[in-house]
Design a protein that fits this description.
The chain has 162 residues and is an alpha+beta fold. It contains three helices and five strands, in the order αβββββαα. A five-stranded antiparallel β-sheet has the order 1-2-3-4-5. It is globular and about 45 Å long.
Length: 162
């Protein structure tokens, strides 16, 4: 396993829409393992492949932040969402910033696991928020894109790339 470099704003890969993953072979399995290790080493609860320079529709989620409880989620699709909730979020790709973001309180998610098997689950509260945040990365959307323009300008005026 390897600790991968987290891409930070304004890295252009963070603004690209990621491609579906179709090959679940050894190269993808290594990516999954490296992403899991990287997420925990960088104290994250989620990590999307574009954040480590791979423009594919893969994310790792561990809302409990407990090793062994993470999920590899490939080619996710939100089928339904309900409720709204505003809460504070941070992001490994925009370090040092935390903003309030409105997200669906409940989502029905279809995805593939690390072997390519399809699943459908209902998630709510924090686990649903983590998935929605990471899916934004797969769609080229950053945390700062979720705040009003004036607030974003203020946040970015004081932002320094590490």
């Amino acid at each position: 396993m390897a600790h991968l470099k987290i891409r930070v704003y304004p890295d252009p890969i963070l603004k690209k829409i990621a491609a579906p993953l179709t090959d679940f072979g050894p190269k993808s399995q290594k990516l999954f393992e490296d992403m899991i290790e990287t997420m925990y080493l960088d104290d994250g609860v989620g990590l999307a492949a574009p954040q480590v320079g791979a423009s594919v529709r893969v994310l790792i989620a561990s809302p409990t932040a407990k090793p062994g409880e993470e999920q590899v989620i490939v080619n996710p699709e939100i089928l339904e969402e309900s409720g709204r909730e505003v809460d504070q979020e941070g992001c490994l790709s925009v370090p040092g910033l935390a903003v309030k973001v409105a997200r669906a309180k409940k989502i029905r998610l279809r995805y593939q696991d690390r072997q390519g098997n399809s699943h459908e689950v209902l998630l709510k509260d924090f686990p649903a928020r983590v998935i929605q945040h990471e899916m934004d990365h797969l769609n080229g959307i950053l945390l700062i894109d979720r705040v009003p323009f004036d607030e974003r300008q203020t946040l970015l005026a004081g932002y320094k790339v590490l």
